[in-house]
Design a protein that fits this description.
Elements (H helix, E strand, L loop, with lengths): L1 E5 L6 H12 L2 E4 H11 L2 H12 L5 H13 L7 E4 L5 H13 L6 E6 L2 H9 L1 E4 L5 E3 L19 E2 L6 H15 L3 H5 L4 E5 L4 H13 L1
Parallel strand pairs: 1-3, 1-4, 2-3, 4-8
Antiparallel strand pairs: 5-6, 5-7
Helix pairs in contact: 1-9, 2-3, 4-5, 6-7
This protein binds adenosine-5'-diphosphate (2 copies) and zinc ion.
């Protein structure tokens, strides 16, 4: 099973992908996470991507499609994949078709998380993650069970993304509207798009996605 999670910044793609990984043994391929790892490691890709990401603009199609192809080559053919934050442009959607068919994979669902734009700024500015295991949290909506301690790994160190500020979020939303939302009709024409209410609480969103995967 190969699925795409589509939705604006803060829609809950990463949160839901990691729950599906835990429950279904699928693999999450997040171009955002992979790019942040490249920035941290100071690789040539990271050096190119850093300023673009900090500005909230999109990294080049060649870079992200290259990363996705390489990541898929590391997986067993039977491992299911959740694409989180990719594709984000029509060119990436076209590349993904080739990348998948070259590897004899098919796309099963494109799940769109529908959310109110007004809620996104609050979600993004309250977002933080465990510095050690990357588990996602929120100041208001998903606090660690014990204050200051990661539920998953027990670490007391957390981090916030430099691009998770109100100004950059606005740019990222504009990019989403201009470049990413227009790829939905491509998948709609193929009958792949399923919509989920991303404003429901985290557990209910997961249930709605599970119901689609089981259908
Ligand atoms: P969010 O989870 O808030 O939607 P991501 O972690 O997916 O954000 O992405 C963070 C940044 O990384 C984006 O603003 C963009 O600069 C870059 N990025 C991630 N994925 C892609 C992609 N598929 N195409 C272009 N840029 C990307
Ligand atoms: P994305 O990957 O789409 O950018 P995230 O999964 O990182 O979004 O979620 C953004 C923030 O909102 C995180 O802090 C997360 O804990 C929180 N969040 C995710 N889903 C929900 C939800 N259904 N209700 C409330 N907060 C949520
Ligand atoms: Zn942790």
């Amino acid at each position: 099973m190969n699925i795409i999670l589509l939705g604006p910044p803060g829609a809950g793609k990463g949160t839901q992908a990691s729950r599906l990984v835990d429950e279904r043994g699928m693999i999450q391929l997040s171009t955002g996470d992979m790019l942040r790892a490249a920035v941290k490691a100071g690789t040539p890709t990271g050096l190119k991507a850093k300023a673009v990401m900090e500005a909230g603009e999109l990294v080049s199609d060649e870079i992200v499609s290259g990363i996705i192809g390489e990541a898929l080559d590391d997986l067993k053919p039977e491992t299911g994949v959740i694409f989180d934050g990719y594709p984000r442009t029509a060119a990436q959607a076209a590349s993904l078709d080739v990348i998948l068919s070259d590897r004899k994979r098919t796309l099963d669902h494109v799940i769109e998380l529908e959310v109110d734009e007004d809620a996104l700024v609050e979600r993004i500015t309250g977002r933080f993650t465990c510095a050690k295991c990357n588990e996602g949290y929120h100041d208001k909506f998903k606090q660690p069970k014990a204050a200051g301690v990661c539920d998953v790994c027990g670490s007391a160190e957390f981090k916030r993304r430099p691009d998770d500020n109100e100004e950059t979020v606005r740019t990222r939303m504009t990019e989403y509207r201009a470049k990413t939302a227009p790829i939905l009709p491509i998948y709609e024409a193929r009958g792949l798009v399923r919509r989920v209410d991303g404003m429901a609480d985290i557990e209910h969103v997961t249930q709605a996605i599970e119901a689609i995967l089981d259908s």
